[in-house]
UniProtKB/TrEMBL annotation, chain A:
Annotated compartments: Membrane
Protein name from the UniProt record: Putative secreted protein
Predominant localisation class: membrane
Taxonomic source organism: Herbinix hemicellulosilytica
Taxonomic lineage: Bacteria, Bacillati, Bacillota, Clostridia, Lachnospirales
Spans traversing the lipid bilayer: 63-80, 92-110, 130-155
From TrEMBL, chain B:
GO biological process: vacuolar acidification
Lineage: superkingdom: Bacteria
Keyword Phosphoprotein annotated: no
Topology of the protein relative to the lipid bilayer: Multi-pass membrane protein
Protein name (database record): Uncharacterized protein
Subcellular location: Membrane
C-alpha cells in the first residue's frame, strides 16, 4: 500500500490532464464545425458576422470548463506549488471527480456544435430569428454545465476528505 | 409593464389633399396602415406598381453605384461611427431634393458606366500586354512576323522548344543547303529562329523543322516586331491614360456620396408612401385611410388634421378579431430589454408585457454569472462613455443595447463586490508579487468566496431560481385575473405555487437535504405538518383540475396525473439555475489562472511589463468569452425557465407609416 501511495498523485494528475485534454479537443472540433458553417453564411451576407460568431463560440465553452476543472485539481493536488502528498485512494477519487466533465464535456460539445450549425442555418435564412436560434445550442450546454458542477463539487469535496 | 392601448382609426378625406395629408402622417409616424374595409363599386384600391417601380430602379442603381464608388474610393468611417447614428438634415433639403433627383440618378448611372469602361479598358490592356510579351523575343528581327519568303526563297519564322545553337540547327538542315538560319533569341525554354531556304527545298525544310517541334508564332503581324512593339507600347500607354482619367472622374464623385446616400433614403420614403397609397380606398373625389393608432396620439392627430384639412376622423376600439400591433410602454430601466423580449416574440393577443418583471431578474442573473467587479466596471464605464459622448445623435436601438449592458455592468460590479472578485484576484496577486503584501485577500468579499463555499453558492442560486419560477407562476395568475379567468388563476397558478412552496418547505425539513446544502434551519413542527397537508391538497387539486378540457372523467384524471408529473420539470428547472454557480466560478477561476500565469513571469526588470501584457490580453479574452456566456445563459433562463411558465408571444410589432431612413434623419 505504501508503494501504491506514491502513485496517488499520478492518477490525480491524469484526471486533471484529461479534463483539459478531452473537452478541449471536442471544443476545438465543435468550434471548427461552427466556423465552417458560419463562413458559408458570411460569403452571402457579411452583415450576419456578429450573430454567426456568437453561435460558433457557444460550443467552445466545454473546453473552458475542462480547463477550469484541470486548474482546480492541479491547485488542490499541489502540482502548482505546495505539498503533493496524495494517497492512492485520494488520487483515484480525484480522477473519478474529473470524469463527468471529461466525458460529458466531450460528447456535449460535439452535439452542441450540431445544434449550433443548424442555428447558423436559421440565421442565414432568417436573421431576425437569432434570439430563438441561440437557445437551441444553449439547451445542450445545460448538461455540460451540470457535469461541470458535479466535477467542481467533487474535486472540492475530495480535498476535504481525510483518507 | 404595459403596452400602449391601440385604437382603430379611419380618416375620410378629399383627394385634392391626399399628398399633403399623407406627407403629414408620414412625418408624424404614428399610424400603422392596415386594410380594414373591402373594395366595392365606388371605392377601389389604386395600382401603384408602376410608380413604385421607378423608385425601386433608382434604389437598385444607386446601391450598385455606391458599392462601386466605395470599392474605388474608400469612405472615411471611424470605428465609432455606428454609435453616432444618422445625420440630421434640415427639412428644406428634403423638400428640394426632388429637383436634384434626376441629376443624382445620372451620377449613379455614370458611375456604373465608368466602372464598366474601366473594366473593358483593363481587359484590353491585358490583351496588349500579352501580345507585347509574345513579341519581345522577336524584337531583333527586322522583318515582319508574317514574312513567308520572296519569289525564289521561302522563309520560316517560329520557335523551337528548349535552347538550340546555330550548329545544331545547321546540322539538322545540312541536306538542304543553301539556306540561312538566324537565331533571334534563345532562352532555356525556347529558341526563336528565322530560316531562309530556296523554294525547291521548302517542303523538306518545313518537314524537318516540324520534326524538331517547330511552332509558328501565335500572332501574325505586318510590321517588323520592333516597330510593332513600339506601337503596342504606345497603345498601352494610351489605355493607361484613359483608365486614369476614368479613375479621376470616379474620384470626383466622392463629393456626391452624400447625395447618393440621401437619394436612397429619399426613395425609401417614397416607396413607403406608395405602399400606403396602394392600401387606400379611393373614389373619384374621396379617399379613406384605415389603420391602428396608439390611443394617446389619436386625439392629437385628429385635432391637427381637422384644423388643417376638410376631413372626418373616426376612432373606434379594436374589434375582437383584430391582430392589434404591439407598442411597448416602459420606463428607461426596462425599456432596453424590449429587444430581448422581441427576439423571443412580442406579446401575443391578450398577453401582458413581461419586460418589467423580466428586467429585474435579467440584470441580476447577468451580474451573478459574470460576477466580477473589474469586468463589470469596464462594461459599465465603456457603455456610459459611449452613451454620454453620442447622447444627442445615437439611435434608439443602439442606445437601448448600450443601456442594457450598462445596467448589466452595474449589477456585475455589485455581485463582484459581494463575492470578492476583482479581475479574478488581481489585487492579491499584484500585492504579493510586487509589494510583498502577506495578508490576503486584500479586499475580502462582502459576502463570501464562492470557490470556498460552493454549496452555499449553489443553495443561493437555487433559491434565486425558485423565486424566479414562482414569479413566473404569479405572472400567469396575474394574466388570468386580467382575463377574469378565475378558474385558471386557482388551478394553474395558485395550486402550483402552493405545491412548490410546500414541497420546498418539506425538503428543507429533511436531514439529508440540510446536510447536502450545509444549511441549518429548524422549521417548527406545525409548519412542516401544514406544508405536508397543503402539498397533498394542491397535488389533489392539480390532478382533479389540470385535465379540465377533457369531458371524460377518467381521461380527465389521467391528464391531471400527467400534469402533476410536471413537478419533475420544476426540479430540472431549479437545477438549471446551478449554471449561475458554474458560470460565476468559471469567470473567477479563469481570471485567477491568468493572474497566476502572469505572476510566474513577474521576476526581473521586464517582469512588470510582461505581467501587464499577459494580464491585459488574458482578461480581455476572459471578459469576452464570459460576457458572451452570461448573455446567452441569461437569455436561456428567461426564455425557457421563466417564459415557459406564462408567456407565449406571437404578436407583431407596431410598424407605423413613417420615414424609415437609413442614413439621414429629417429634422422637423
Amino acid at each position: 500500500m505504501k508503494l501504491l501511495n506514491e502513485y496517488g498523485i499520478a492518477f490525480a494528475l491524469l484526471g486533471a490532464v484529461l479534463a483539459a485534454l478531452v473537452p478541449g479537443i471536442a471544443s476545438a472540433k465543435a468550434v471548427s464545425m461552427g466556423g465552417v458553417a458560419g463562413a458559408g453564411v458570411i460569403t452571402e451576407d457579411p452583415a450576419q458576422f456578429g450573430k454567426v460568431l456568437i453561435l460558433q463560440l457557444l460550443p467552445g465553452t466545454q473546453g473552458i470548463y475542462g480547463l477550469l476543472i484541470a486548474f482546480i485539481t492541479l491547485s488542490q493536488i499541489g502540482v502548482l506549488g505546495g505539498s503533493s502528498d496524495i494517497s492512492f485512494v485520494k488520487g483515484l477519487l480525484y480522477f473519478a471527480a474529473c470524469l463527468p466533465i471529461v466525458i460529458v464535456g466531450y460528447s456535449s460539445a460535439i452535439k452542441q456544435a450540431k445544434a449550433a450549425v443548424a442555428s447558423i442555418n436559421v440565421v442565414a435564412k432568417r436573421p431576425d430569428q437569432f434570439g430563438k436560434a441561440m437557445i437551441f445550442p444553449a439547451m445542450v450546454e445545460t448538461y455540460a454545465i451540470l457535469a461541470l458542477l458535479i466535477s467542481i463539487l467533487a474535486v472540492n469535496g475530495v480535498s476535504g476528505l481525510n483518507i | 409593464m404595459a403596452l400602449q392601448k391601440m385604437q382603430r382609426i379611419y380618416i375620410y378625406a378629399l383627394k385634392k389633399d391626399k399628398d399633403r395629408i399623407l406627407e403629414l402622417l408620414q412625418r408624424r409616424g404614428i399610424i400603422e396602415v392596415r386594410n380594414m374595409l373591402k373594395e366595392d363599386k365606388i371605392f377601389r384600391r389604386e395600382d401603384i406598381g408602376h410608380a413604385k417601380e421607378s423608385s425601386e430602379k433608382n434604389v437598385a442603381a444607386v446601391s450598385q453605384a455606391l458599392e462601386i464608388l466605395n470599392s474605388y474610393v474608400k469612405e472615411n468611417k471611424s470605428l465609432l461611427s455606428s454609435l453616432k447614428g444618422r445625420k440630421e438634415l434640415p427639412e428644406e433639403v428634403y423638400a428640394s431634393f426632388g429637383e436634384k433627383l434626376e441629376s443624382v440618378v445620372e451620377i449613379a448611372k455614370r458611375i456604373i458606366t465608368l466602372s464598366k469602361k474601366i473594366a473593358e479598358e483593363k481587359a484590353e490592356l491585358i490583351r496588349l500586354q500579352n501580345q507585347i510579351e509574345i513579341l519581345k523575343p522577336w524584337v531583333n528581327l527586322d522583318i515582319p512576323l508574317n514574312f513567308k519568303g520572296t519569289k525564289h526563297t521561302a522563309g520560316f519564322i517560329g520557335t523551337l522548344p528548349k535552347e538550340w545553337t546555330l550548329e545544331e540547327i545547321y546540322e539538322k538542315l545540312a541536306a538542304y543547303m543553301p539556306l540561312d538560319v538566324e537565331i533571334i533569341s534563345a532562352t532555356k525554354e525556347q529558341t526563336c529562329i528565322f530560316v531562309l531556304c530556296t523554294n525547291t527545298f521548302k517542303d523538306n525544310v518545313f518537314e524537318t523543322l516540324r520534326a524538331m517541334d517547330f511552332i509558328l508564332p501565335s500572332i501574325s503581324l505586318d510590321k517588323a516586331p520592333a516597330e510593332q512593339l513600339k506601337d503596342f507600347e504606345k497603345q498601352a500607354e494610351e489605355i493607361k491614360g484613359r483608365i486614369n482619367t476614368y479613375l479621376e472622374e470616379m474620384k470626383s464623385y466622392d463629393k456626391s456620396r452624400e447625395d447618393l446616400y440621401f437619394l436612397l433614403d429619399y426613395e425609401t420614403i417614397r416607396i413607403e408612401k406608395y405602399d400606403v397609397i396602394g392600401n387606400l380606398l379611393q373614389s373619384k373625389n374621396v379617399f379613406i385611410i384605415t389603420g391602428f393608432i396608439p390611443e394617446k396620439d389619436a386625439k392629437h392627430i385628429e385635432e391637427e388634421l381637422t384644423s388643417k384639412f376638410d376631413l372626418a376622423v373616426e376612432v373606434t376600439e379594436p374589434k375582437n378579431k383584430d391582430q392589434v400591433p404591439v407598442l411597448y410602454k416602459n420606463n428607461g430601466f426596462c425599456e432596453p430589454l424590449e429587444g430581448i423580449v422581441n427576439s423571443f416574440s412580442p406579446p401575443g393577443k391578450g398577453e401582458i408585457d413581461p419586460t418589467m418583471v423580466m428586467s429585474l431578474f435579467y440584470y441580476m442573473l447577468f451580474g451573478l454569472m459574470l460576477s466580477d467587479a473589474g469586468y463589470g466596471f469596464l462594461m459599465a464605464v465603456g457603455c456610459a462613455f459611449a452613451l454620454y459622448k453620442f447622447r444627442n445623435t445615437m439611435e434608439r436601438p443602439m442606445k437601448n443595447t448600450l443601456k442594457m449592458y450598462l445596467y448589466c455592468g452595474i449589477s456585475t460590479i455589485f455581485w463582484g463586490i459581494m463575492f470578492g472578485s476583482y479581475f479574478g484576484d488581481i489585487f492579491d496577486v499584484v500585492g504579493t508579487t510586487f509589494f510583498g503584501v502577506e495578508k490576503v485577500p486584500v479586499i475580502p468579499p462582502l459576502w463570501f468566496f464562492p470557490v470556498e463555499k460552493p454549496m452555499l453558492m449553489l443553495t443561493f442560486c437555487m433559491a434565486v431560481g425558485i423565486l424566479h419560477l414562482l414569479i413566473g407562476l404569479a405572472m400567469k395568475g396575474y394574466q388570468a385575473i386580467k382575463h377574469k379567468d378565475y378558474k385558471s388563476l386557482v388551478y394553474d397558478a395558485v395550486f402550483w405555487i402552493t405545491l412548490l412552496i410546500s414541497c420546498v418547505l418539506l425538503l428543507l425539513s429533511m436531514e439529508m437535504i440540510k446536510n447536502i446544502l450545509g444549511i441549518n434551519i429548524e422549521l417548527p413542527a406545525y409548519a412542516v405538518k401544514a406544508a405536508g397537508i397543503l402539498a397533498i391538497i394542491s397535488a389533489a387539486g392539480i390532478i382533479l383540475t389540470n385535465g379540465r378540457e377533457s369531458k371524460n372523467p377518467f381521461k380527465r384524471i389521467l391528464k391531471g396525473l400527467y400534469a402533476l408529473y410536471g413537478i419533475s420539470g420544476y426540479l430540472s428547472d431549479v437545477l438549471s439555475y446551478s449554471r449561475l454557480l458554474a458560470l460565476g466560478l468559471a469567470t473567477g477561476v479563469i481570471g485567477s489562472v491568468i493572474n497566476k500565469m502572469a505572476a510566474m513571469t513577474a521576476g526581473g526588470i521586464f517582469g512588470p511589463v510582461i505581467f501587464t501584457v499577459i494580464v491585459i490580453i488574458g482578461h480581455a479574452l476572459n471578459i469576452g468569452i464570459n460576457a458572451l456566456g452570461a448573455y446567452v445563459h441569461t437569455n436561456r433562463l428567461q426564455y425557457v425557465e421563466f417564459f415557459g411558465k406564462f408567456y407565449e408571444g406571437g404578436g407583431t410589432l407596431f410598424k407605423p407609416f413613417g420615414m424609415h431612413t437609413k442614413y439621414y434623419k429629417i429634422k422637423e
